[in-house]
Model the fold of this input.
Amino acid sequence: MTDYILQTEALRKAFGGLVAVDNVSVNITRGAMHSIIGPNGAGKTTFFNLLNGTFKPTSGRVIYKGEDITEQPMHRRIHLGIGRSFQITNIFPNLTVLENVRLAAQAISDVNFHWFRPASRYTQFERRAFEVLELVGLRDEAFYPANVLPHGGKRKLELAILLAPDPEVMLLDEPTAGMASEQVPQLMETIATIKAQGNKTIVMVEHNMNVVMGVSDRITVMNLGRVLAEGAPAEIAKNETVQRVYLGELYGDLSEAGGAHG
Amino acid sequence: MNRVGKFLKENWLYLTVLVLLILLPHLIGWATDSSPLGVQRGDRFIMRGQSTYWQSVFIELFALAILVMSYNLMFGFTGVISFGHALFFGGGAYITGMTLEFMGLEPTLGLLVGVLLTLGICGLLGLTIGLATLRLRGVYFAIFTLAIAEMVWVFFGRFPATNGEDGLTLKSLPTFIDPTQNRIFLYYIALAAFAFTFFFIRRLVSSPTGRVFQAIRENEERAKAIGYHTLRFKLFAITVASTMAGGAGILHGILNKSARPEYLSVTHTVDALLMTIIGGVGTFVGPVLGAAGLELADVLLRDAKLTLGTTVINVGESWNFLLGLVFIVVVLVFPYGIVGTWHRWRAQRRKPK
Done:
C-alpha cells in the first residue's frame, strides 16, 4: 500500500452559486513531487486554500497523515508541518529579508509569548534563517528591507519563508509566477535540491509546463473545478481527454521547450 | 561588565535625557531663582514660581507621552487602529477618583487601591473589548471602539454621582502627592511612570512577541499563514496598551485633581493619533517627541501673537487650526513622520543598487 501523506476526499468549495472546487479527491504520496496544472480558473489556487486552511470546504475532508484536519485553522497547520507559498508575492514589506524568514522560523517555536527578552538572544531562529537564505541565494541581501528586492528576489524570499519552519509538506503556488524566464531555471534548481534531500513532499501549482513536465513525479490536471486526469507526466502528455480540453496550450509550450533545449 | 557596557552604549542617549529630567526642577529653579518646592508660608508650601510651573507642564507631558506610547504600541507596532483609546485615559481618572472619594478609605490606602483597581479594570476592559471586536477588520473595529468610548463619555456627562458635566473633584488625595502642596513628588512619580513605560515598551517590541506584533502590522494574513494565531497577539497588545492608558489617566486626574467627562472625549484619542503620526508611526522615540513637541508648543505659544500684515492672529485661540496646519505640512513633507522619515532616509543609503 502506498504511503499517502496528504489526501482529500470529495472536496468541494462553493462561493455562492460558483463551484470553484468540485468533488476533488487527490492522494499525495509521501516524498513525491506532485504538480497540479490546469487553465486559468480551474480551481487550483482555491484547492490550495483548502489544503492549507485559508478556506473551510463546503463539504469533503482533508486528511493529513491519516488524520482529519478539515477543521484545523491555517495557523495550526503550519505546526502540523504543512507550509504554503503564495502566487502573489506576500511578504512583510518593511521588515528586513532576514526578519521575514526569522519570523517564519520562530512561528513554530514555543517562545512566541516570551515578551521581555530581546528576540536577538534567541539566536537559533537567526541561524536557521541564514541557512535558508543561503539555500535560496539571498544571503547577501539579508539586511535589506524586503520591499526593495526585485521581483525575482521576492519570489526567492517567498520560498525561504516557506522553508524556514522545515515543513514536511510544501505547497508551492506558482513559484515562478511573473519571474523573468532566465531566472526560472535557478529557482527550479533550488526546488530540485530541496526535493533531492528526500524528506519533503512538494505539491506545486504551476502554469509553466516546461517546469512541471521535467520535475514532477505525478500530475493532476484540473479543469472547471474538477479533476480531469491524473498520472505520471508521460501519461498526462498522451492522455486524449487532456489533449482535447486543454493541451493546445501545453503542446505549444512543449515545442517551445524542445526548441530551447535543442 | 560586558553586558553593562553594552547596555550603556545602546542607551546612553536615553539615560542622559533621564538624568536631565531628574535634575530639571532643580535646573529650572537654579536658572530662574525659584525653589523647586514652591514658596514657604508657615509650615506649608504655595506652588508659585517657574520651577513648580514647569513641573506641572512636564507632569502633563509625561501623562500624554504614556498615552501616546500606549497608542503607538497598538497602532504603530501592531497595526490596530482604535478611536476609543480615550476611554481608558478618562476611565483611569474616574476609577481612581471614585475610589478615593466614595470608598471612604484612608487617603494613602485609597490611592493605592484606586491605582490597582484602575490598572486591573482598564486591562480587563481592553481585553474584553478586544475579544468582542477584534475579529472585526480595520475601520469597523475603529468605529466600534469609538462608539463605546463615546457612550461612556455621554454617561459620565450625566451621571449625578460624579457631578455630570462638572466632573468629580479629588478632595481626598493624600497630601504627599497633592500637586497643590507637594508637586515635586508627583513630578518624580510621573517621571518614574514615564521612564518605566518607555523601557517596558522598548523591551516588549524587541522581544519575540513584539516582532510578531510588527509582522501583524505589516501583513496579518501572511502572519497567520506562517503559523501565528494573530488574534492572541492583538489581544495582548490591546490589553497592555489599555492598562498603560489607564495609568496615564491616573496621572492626568491627580495633576488636575479631578475626573471630568472631557478626559473621555475623542479629542484625547485624536491627539494621541496625531502625535503618533507626526512623530513617526511605529518608531520608538517619534511619538514621544510628537507628544513633547505639541505639548510644549501649546504651552509656549498659548499667549503668542502672530502678525501677518494688518492681521493679528492669537495663537492660543487658533491652536486647533494651527495644529491642523502643522499636521498637513508634516504629512506632506515627512510622510512617515519625523523620526520615521529620518530612519527611512538612513535605510535608503544602504539600499542595493
Residues 250-262 of chain A have pLDDT under 50 and may be disordered. Chain A touches chain B at residues 52, 54, 73-76, 78-79, 83-84, 86, 90-95, 99, 102-104, 106-108, 111-120, 122, 141, 143-145, 148, 161, 164-165 (CB under 8 Å).
